[in-house]
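Usage

Read records sequentially. Each one opens with the input sequence:
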Amino acid sequence: RDLHSFPTRRSSDLIDKPYIIIDNRNKYSTNTYDLFMDVITYVRSALEREGIGIISFEKNEKDTLEGARPYVGLFKKQENYLIKNSKLVVGCDNLSNYTAAALNTPSIGLYSAYPAVCTKPMWGDNYIALESHRDGNLPAYGVEERPKTVNFIEPEKVANAIFKMLGLPDKVPHTTFFI
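and closes with the structure output:
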């Protein structure tokens, strides 16, 4: 059976246009990116111009990303269907990136607590790894990290990687300055 034969939280929202997936779920809060709303702000108009939607895989209903169609509590088979048919998957060192690589779907991974070379997908080459500079420190190699260095990845770098992977000429023309 395909995705549409399974009940989902938003079964009335059938996917009727191309889309990208943002997956910010992770077992460890250290590996969740708090700046995806900024990324969506940067890419929304270009994606709308191209007729591309944004869906998000969410852990719960209270942490949904504004501007994205949220999917909460999907079965892995449903997630795999969505990943296989998406134009791009963006995630923080999680299973969706590995699934995208195995299904030959373009993907972008954000890395901080572990170096990308240790945890990025090993299949395919249709993948961009964005790694935190960690303020010059070594990776935490653990489940707890203060501050969360994944948030040191500037949202414009993520947005520009999205444009690149989708073959769009757009660029975010400025750089985030952290205080």
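Summary fields computed downstream for this record:
- The chain is about 25% helix and 15% strand.
- The radius of gyration is 16 Å.
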